[in-house]
Structures are given as C-alpha cells and as structure tokens.
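Support request, priority: normal
Reporter: lab tech (M.K.)
Component: structure prediction queue

Hi team, I submitted a job for Phosphate-binding protein from Galactobacter caseinivorans yesterday, and the status page still shows it as pending. I've pasted the exact input below so you can check whether something in the sequence is tripping the parser. The sequence length should be 374 residues. Please let me know if I need to resubmit or if it's stuck on your end.
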Amino acid sequence: MKLKRLGQAAAVLSIAALGLTACGQANNPGASSSGAASGSAAEGGSQVEGTLSGSGATSQEAAVTAWQTGLAATAPNVSVQYNPVGSGAGRKAFLAGSASFAGSDAALKPEEQDEAKKVCGPDGALNIPAYIAPVSVAYNLKGVDKVQMDAETIASIFTGKINKWNDPALVKQNEGVSLPDTKITVVHRSDESGTTKNFTDYLTAAAPKAWTYDVVEKWPSEINAESAQGTSGVVKLATTTDGAITYADLAATGNLGHVSVKVGDSYQEPTEEAAAKTVETAKKVEGGSANDMAVKLDRTATTAGTYPIVLVSYHIFCSTYKDQNTVDMVKAFGTYVTSQDGQKAAQEAAGAAPLSTSLSDQAKKSIETITVAK
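Reply from support: The job had stalled in the queue. We restarted it manually and it finished. Here are the results:
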C-alpha cells in the first residue's frame, strides 16, 4: 500500500530524484560516479560522490522532496534524480538497467524477480518498504462532508452499477446525510499504477461478487469511466468535477472528501495510524529471498482501528551492484529513508505512516546485505 526525514544514514545523496547506478553487472547505465569511495559511506566512513537515477511511484514524490532536503546537508556531493512516472514504468526502467532503483507501490512480481537476476545477479532484487499510506476513496460532492460505504458499494460504484449519489445502498449507510441526486463520475488512473493494484486488491478480496476484474495495475478497459495520468491527474480531475469519486494517496487528495470504509461493524476513516496498524498485521510474501521484505496485506481484517486500503510503497534495490561507490550510496540512501528520521520527514511532508521500529530495524539489516557483484 500508503506506505505522505533527516539523515541517520552516514554519507549519501542530496535526493533530486532517486536513482542509483544500475544493478548488477549489466545494469549500470543509469548512474555515474566521480571518484571511488575509500571506505563505506553507509557505515559513516568516507565521502561518496555521484549521481543516482531512479524512477517510479508518483505517490512518493512529496516524500522524495523531503528526503532530498534532509540528505542534502549530509551528502553534498551526491545527487539523486527521480522521475515520477508511475510504479509500472519505474519497475520497467529498473529491470531494463536504465534506473538504479525503482519506487513502486507494488513489489516485484515473481516473473519480474526472475528478470531482475539478469541485471542484479543471481540473488535478484530486494523490495524494501519505504513509504506507507492509506489510499483514500476520495470524492467531490457539494454540501456533503461525510460519506460511509462498505466494500460492495465501493465496488459497485467503480464498476458503474451504482451511478447516483442518492442510490438506496448509499442512503442506507448514511442515515441523516442529505445525499443529492447527482451523477457519480468515476475517475481512475490511466497509467499502469501500484495505487490501482492496491485498490483493486482490496476490491477483489472484500467484494468479490461486485468486483470481477481481479487485481490489476491497469484499469479494466471494459469499465466506462473518466481517467487521468498519475496521482495529481486524477485528483485534479476529481476536484473540478462535481459528483466525482476516485482513489489516491491520502496526502495528495487536497480538498476532496474521504469515504469512511466499513471495517467489521464500524466505519473507519483513512488515517496514518489506521494504515500503520494494518501493516503491522501483514505477512511476508512467500517465495522471496531471506532479505526481501515484500508483504501481503489482509484486506478483509475486521480489527477496529485498521483501514483496509493501504499502500506499501517500496524501494526496489539490486542485491549487488557493479562498484563499491554505488553500493555505499545505495546503503546510505536506503538506511536513511527507512530510519526514524527519514520516516518522520516523510510523515511531515507527505502524510505517510512511519514504519514501525521492528520494520525499520529489519530494513536496515536487509540493506546492509547489498554488496558488490563478484
């Protein structure tokens, strides 16, 4: 999932975008280094220099800006270039060797892990949680500042089965709320998106009868609805369309309203605290390496205080890189981002839910295993 900041990591980048020098032996076109590092920057040793290039999730954009600010003072000779093109495009760039790491709202698929071995070496890549955020079912409805929905209603709206705001299913769940006879305009992502994948993962698990399109990163073409590029695109379109509803990272939704989603016998608003509590119950995805941290969220949990539509955005690194300087920059960057300082920076700037202490410690240990390809 959702998932919106200073430098505990030793010497590293001034994040002007994120990319690291490419992965593994064949993957180094996306970075340049000026001078070799004498010692390990990630351990607080010598100065590292270079430019890291990365691309991926638009949901991380605000957090990246905060990480840039926090790290610029400690690593003046390292720059990071991050292109927010969406999770799918970011992973493709990483796997093609044109970016040293990807920001992605979805972990690598099994087939992508196999592909990663071509550029990252036999141990492939690591999915490291960097950013947790609730995905808001956000709406623009004049005069209505509170709406409650269960999963089936949300799925029925996004498939076009419910197309008016005063539909009986909505009225029943919103006693005392005056819902107008306004057309519902669904707005979805036009690009391949990890946010779409997290949202449809929720719909698939929680409303399988109403949502029959499975878990997808690209919105089903069979559904007739409005679309826009990236998080900012859908938020902008929804904001200028009365009656619109969309899904987006909570911190990026601006003045849109937020649907309270049914959890158990009550309704839960999207909050940082509820998102963090949901991730605490997540299980590790089976089949990955011992140091991979991809998780499987329980979208149907009924625990009070949890919110089911959570986005865990990863930084995807190679397990090995071509040279020590790149390894040092990657370690310093990754360690800072997942540290308490880095997570605090992302929370303040982007509304992200901080990683728990245990997850932060685990991330540090995983990042420490990144090394030079032999």
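The longest strand covers residues 125-140. The chain has two domains: 14-133+278-295+310-372, 135-274. Let us know if anything else looks off. Ticket resolved.
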